[in-house]
Amino acid sequence: MSGVFRDSRKALDAFRHDALDVVQSTNLECLARARGGDAGHLWITAREQTGGKGRRGRPWVSNPGNLYASLLLINPAPLERMSSLPLAVAIAVHQAVRAVLPADAPPLEVKWPNDVLIGRAKTCGILLEAEIMPFGQHALVIGIGINIAAKPDQTPYATTSLADHGASVSPEELFAHLFGSMADILALWDEGRGVAEVTHRWRSIACGIGEKITVNLPDQSISGIFSGIDDHGMLLLDRGSQGIMPVAAGDVFFEPNGPKAI
């Protein structure tokens, strides 16, 4: 499918959308469609999820009034060019939220790699899941949950919703913005060939570059100064005398009173 995303107008026209009522998970629904031979470019949205999940299998509270959307792509890019896709997705979500957020709202930023924050509180979760189909195709699902009317509590991080900041928008209206911004960004990303422009745009909306952070890995937690990202989207953690450590995946936490790099 080389070149599918080069013309954003054609990409926009190529996408399909199936709006459902209640599902276990929009990601699971997309994977089921892929196993059934769906060609991809398919958005699935739902009013409510009964079994939504976030990273590392954490449950994702899915009350009505928020946006639950998943995009199915088939063979989106060669595997060696996939690492920058989460950054591109975050840019698309940021643009969609920016379009409906009042101008006087707190800063809208992206925490590495793709959490969208308003005033340092999480308002969106993004989960990418991949599966090799029996017929050899690579199915990728981009799951997006955006807190519009409600937000979860009892989380290890601060959360917020668009309603908390004066945004009056329905899930359908917000999805219309996301539908367009995702087509535009995937055209820019161009199957990973547009990584330079994607990383440039991501840095312009990034949260906390130059601040002290802790990165939770599966087997340890490490701290240092967030020095930004490399040209492939990996987090660069400055550990002082131990040098710069690239991080491919992990949960980032900012230290409220941590020093900033000069």
TrEMBL record:
Pfam short name (any one): BPL_LplA_LipB
Superkingdom assignment: Bacteria
KW Cytoplasm (keyword) present: no
Catalytic function, reaction form: biotin + L-lysyl-[protein] + ATP = N(6)-biotinyl-L-lysyl-[protein] + AMP + diphosphate + H(+)
UniProt keyword Ligase present: yes
Enzyme class: ligase
Assigned keywords, A-Z: ATP-binding, Biotin, Ligase, Nucleotide-binding
GO molecular function terms listed in the Swiss-Prot or TrEMBL record: biotin--[biotin carboxyl-carrier protein] ligase activity
Segments forming domain BPL/LPL catalytic: 14-190
EC number annotated for this UniProt entry: 6.3.4.15
Protein name (record): biotin--[biotin carboxyl-carrier protein] ligase
Provenance organism: Rhizobium paknamense
